[in-house]
Amino acid sequence: MIGDIFERVGVNLMGKVLNISSQRQRVIAGNIANVMTPGYTKKELNFEENLARAMGKQGLPGLSENKKHIPIGNPDNGRQPLIIENVNEGTVDMEKEMAASAENQLLYSTVTKLISGKFRSLQLVIRGR
């Protein structure tokens, strides 16, 4: 029941956005940290593609009592985001990475404020005000 409420107000989707944004920030930070590393290949995390994967169809829920059992439902449910090595560009452009970091931070901050507002609204409804 609570999960249904969160789904209706979009908290589950916003949680996925925060997770992917957090992973993207780690990738960007790794690129910045390796800006002077010879032979380092820039990595990217495509936000839109990863969000689409995270929102993919859910399989049937199932219970497995043994690790040897065939998984029921969506076996890729906990998979890691796609991180792509950008072999075309090769080197890291510090200005582009800093701009990407700032954009990602704005997205993360905005979504956290939206989630906070949703929880405040739910709190008001529960209290009856």
Describe the SSE topology.
Elements: H1 2-9, H2 11-33, E1 43-44, H3 47-54, E2 84-85, H4 94-127
Antiparallel strand pairs: 1-2
Question: What's this model, at a glance?
Answer:
With 129 residues, this protein is mainly α. It contains four helices and two strands. A two-stranded antiparallel sheet has the order 1-2.
Word description of this protein:
There is one protein chain. This protein has 129 residues and is mainly alpha-helical. It has one domain (2-55, 78-127). The chain is 57% helix and 3% strand. The protein is built from 4 helices and 2 strands; from the N terminus they run ααβαβα. It has helices at residues 2-9, 11-33, 47-54, 94-127, and strands at 43-44, 84-85. The protein has a two-stranded antiparallel ribbon with strand order 1-2. Helix 2 (11-33) packs antiparallel against helix 3 (47-54) and helix 2 (11-33) packs antiparallel against helix 4. The protein is flat. The protein starts with a helix and ends with a helix. The relative contact order is 0.19.
